[in-house]
Amino acid sequence: MIAVLYLLIFAVLLCFFFVGWMKTKRKYVYSKREKYDTNTISIIIPFRNEATNIPYLVEAISTLTKQPLEFIWVNDHSEDGSELLIQHLPENHQLISLDKNITGKKSAIRAGIKRATGSYILTWDADCIVPSTYFETLEQTPVSTLTILPVAMHAQTVWEIFYELDYYFLSSINVGLSGFTQPLVASGANLLFEKASFLEVDSIAQHQHIASGDDQFLLVDFKKAKKSIQVIPAFELCVITKTPHTLTAFFQQRLRWIGKSSYIKDNPTRIISSVGLTYVVLFVCLLFTTHWMIILCSKIIIDVLIFLPYLHALKRKKTVWFLPIFTLIYPVYCCVIGLLMLVVKPKWKGRL
User: Fold this and answer.
1) What SS3 class is residue 97?
2) Is the pTM higher than 0.85?
3) What is the pLDDT of residues 15-72, one digit of tens each?
4) Strand (E) or helix (H) holding 108
5) I want to staple 310 with a disulfide (CB 3.0 to 4.6 A). Which of 3, 172, 256, 285 is the partner?
6) From start to end of 133-272, where are the E strands?
7) Quick check: helix, strand or coil at residue 183?
8) Pairing verdict, β 120-124 and 190-194
9) Which of 157, 323, 311, 315 is nearest to 249 (CA)?
């Protein structure tokens, strides 16, 4: 009986998910709202010790068929000569450095915003690659005070595909939910927002002491102020970043992401997170019943259906073949993350 109820509830939720996906896509494709103008966009790229990644981003920027108003690179006390790679870029690139008593990505972004002359701010991470036709597509995108743009993690090994799928799981759900309600998450690796609205709602004084979470706090600020927010699942606007290369780096990254959520007071996010946790916990419990094979096969099918629209949008459908393994590993991963949160303080680039 419990197994039937479990499958029925999540089958219904899956239907809502698909309807949400279609609504999100329809709002993007058929919107008649004003579209973005590239000449009003300032790009801010905060960086710290990215000497191995910046050349790839610089090369990608040089291939852009349309350029934005300006690029503002903000150096967060790099120790590997990263800033030297930017000093000889064209005139629409600026390089600024944080004062010695100011650190962190949040401070870097705000330093860039102070210097920006555009009406809209687009943040990229220094380890991302952007498609050459990015801004042509962006100029076909309806304007919103906050636009959450897609980020893809491309695995380089078979094991890293798990890291990639873990990231896509939440991203996919985020798009589906945004058809009915406000999105759950945003990534500062590819995030576009109106400068005036940001200055109006910014709550940095309340979370300056928290090292990470610039994107999530920004999202919550815009939600509380009832600003217009949209999610755009378009491959042509997707920036690509690498997955973590080691298990330690992966867990450090995920602990940072999950750890900041405890500081973000957003009831819809908490409710949906609880539903997701219930989905995983009940799955594990039902594996120890006589219906375990039906539950396992059904869970794999549900996961495939959740992932497939997003993987198709990002042209990563081949990774769907790894979902049966992902389905089995994911509950173990959740348990390990839960235990590590109790004993590990994650670091990023040598900082807690």
Assistant:
1) strand
2) yes
3) 888 888 888 877 776 677 789 999 999 999 999 999 999 999 999 999 999 999 999 9
4) helix 105-115
5) 172
6) 146-148, 151-154, 190-194, 229-231, 239-242
7) coil
8) antiparallel
9) 157
